[in-house]
Design a protein that fits this description.
By secondary structure, this protein is α/β, with parallel strands linked by helices. Helix content is 33%, strand content 25%. The protein has a single domain, classed as Alpha-Beta Complex (Maf protein). It has a 6-stranded mixed β-sheet with strand order 2-1-3-4-5-6. Helix 1 crosses helix 6 and helix 6 crosses helix 7. The termini are close together. It binds inosinic acid. The site of inosinic acid has 18 residues, from strand 3 and helix 3.
Length: 187
C-alpha cells in the first residue's frame, strides 16, 4: 500500500483536527461532514469511530482516506466511566463534572483512550489505538487543550496536560499515539 497523504476526518472538533495535523506532518487533513453527523450510539470507542469513518467515506474525495475518531476518559473509581459517554457525561463542564464525581475520592487514576478507524479509497480498513494514563488533580490548572486537560496529570508528570501544552500533547497524547499507529499501518 502506498502512503496516503490526504485524509478526511469526520469530526466537528477543530482541536482533534489540529492534534492530528501536528501528529501527522506532511498529511493533508480536512474536516468533512460537519453538519448532520450520524448518531454515536456504538458500545465501544471503535464502534463509534467506525460509524464516523463510514459516514465520512460518503463525504470524502474518492482518492483520499476517510477517518473517524472517538475518544474519552475512563476513571478507575467510576468503574471505567464515563468512557464512550464522555462527551455527553461532561455536559459542557468536563472539569467541574469530574472534580465533583471524584470529590473526597483517593483513587484518582484515569486513562484517556483514542481509537481511529480509517477507511481507504478501496474500502480497506485500519484501526489504530492510543492511550494516556494519568490522575485527576484536585483543582484545574493551565489553558491549553480542551475537555479534561486542565485536571489531567499524566503519569510521570507533575503538571496538567493543559499546562504541559500543545507541543507536549502532539507527541504524548492518546490521539498522537493513535495517529502514529495509523501512520505506521498505512505506510
Ligand atoms: P468525542 O470523541 O467527540 O465523542 O468526545 C470525547 C470527549 O472525551 C470529549 O468531549 C472530551 O470531554 C473527552 N476527551 C477526549 N479526548 C480528550 C483530550 O485530548 N483532552 C481532553 N478531553 C478529551
Amino acid at each position: 500500500m502506498t502512503a496516503p497523504r490526504t485524509l478526511a476526518l469526520a469530526s466537528r472538533n477543530p482541536h482533534k483536527l489540529e492534534e492530528l495535523l501536528r501528529a501527522l506532518p506532511g498529511w493533508e487533513i480536512a474536516l468533512v461532514g460537519r453538519d448532520d453527523p450520524p448518531p454515536e450510539n456504538g458500545a465501544t470507542f471503535e464502534d463509534n469511530a467506525r460509524i464516523k469513518a463510514r459516514w465520512g467515506r460518503l463525504h470524502a474525495p474518492p482518492g483520499s482516506w476517510a477517518a473517524g475518531e472517538d475518544s474519552g476518559i475512563e476513571a478507575t473509581a467510576l468503574g471505567g466511566a464515563p468512557g464512550v459517554h464522555s462527551a455527553r457525561w461532561a455536559a459542557g463542564d468536563p472539569v467541574g463534572r469530574m472534580l465533583e464525581a471524584l470529590a473526597g475520592e483517593e483513587e484518582r487514576g484515569v486513562r484517556y483512550v483514542c481509537v481511529v478507524v480509517a477507511v481507504g479509497p478501496d474500502g480497506g480498513e485500519v484501526v489504530a489505538r492510543g492511550t494516556l494514563e494519568g490522575t485527576i488533580a484536585r483543582e484545574a490548572a493551565g489553558s491549553a487543550g480542551f475537555g479534561f486537560d486542565p485536571i489531567f496529570v499524566p503519569v510521570g508528570e507533575t503538571r496538567t496536560v493543559a499546562q504541559l501544552g500543545d507541543d507536549w500533547k502532539r507527541t504524548h497524547s492518546h490521539r498522537a499515539q493513535a495517529a502514529a499507529a495509523l501512520a505506521l499501518a498505512v505506510s
